[in-house]
């Protein structure tokens, strides 16, 4: 795409965005930030991202909706109950501990990649 077509497309989009503001007027609010609100440190933001990644890859949304048991049990040939870590015969199902174990491994892999990149650029 050449520059003239890009400028024409940008001008058309700017015109489209200006149309609602011809009718509507933005209020002039003078909001002040509370004094206790401050910019979080990079480490805090990184920790929140890692924790949210852990929970999302662990299937927290699935666990809240479906409410599966933490671990399963299966009866062996002698009639004894044995704990089962992985949900058998269901492709889209999981136990809570199964999700957390896989999430732990995903997170450790990601943290290993990040630490490798940090050491690569710190040399």
TrEMBL record:
Keyword check for Membrane: yes
Membrane topology: Multi-pass membrane protein
GO CC field: oligosaccharyltransferase complex
Annotated localization: Membrane
Endpoints of the signal sequence: none
TM segment ranges: 45-65, 100-121
InterPro entries hit by this protein: OSTC
Keywords, alphabetical: Membrane, Transmembrane, Transmembrane helix
Protein's UniProt keywords contain Cell cycle: no
Function, as annotated: Subunit of STT3A-containing oligosaccharyl transferase (OST-A) complex that catalyzes the initial transfer of a defined glycan (Glc(3)Man(9)GlcNAc(2) in eukaryotes) from the lipid carrier dolichol-pyrophosphate to an asparagine residue within an Asn-X-Ser/Thr consensus motif in nascent polypeptide chains, the first step in protein N-glycosylation. N-glycosylation occurs cotranslationally and the complex associates with the Sec61 complex at the channel-forming translocon complex that mediates protein translocation across the endoplasmic reticulum (ER).
Record text on subunit structure and interactions: Component of the oligosaccharyltransferase (OST) complex.
Similarity annotation: Belongs to the OSTC family.
Protein name as catalogued: Oligosaccharyltransferase complex subunit
């Amino acid at each position: 795409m050449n520059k003239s077509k890009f400028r024409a497309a940008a001008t058309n989009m700017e015109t489209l965005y200006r149309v609602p503001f011809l009718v509507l007027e933005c209020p002039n609010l003078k909001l002040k930030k509370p004094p206790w609100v401050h910019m979080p440190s990079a480490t805090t933001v990184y920790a929140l991202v890692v924790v949210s990644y852990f929970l999302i890859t662990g299937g927290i949304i699935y666990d809240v909706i479906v409410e599966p048991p933490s671990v399963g049990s299966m009866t062996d040939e002698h009639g004894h109950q044995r704990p089962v870590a992985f949900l058998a015969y269901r492709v889209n199902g999981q136990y809570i501990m199964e999700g957390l174990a896989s999430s732990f491994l995903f997170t450790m892999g990601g943290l290993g990649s990040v630490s490798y990149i940090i050491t690569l650029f710190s040399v």
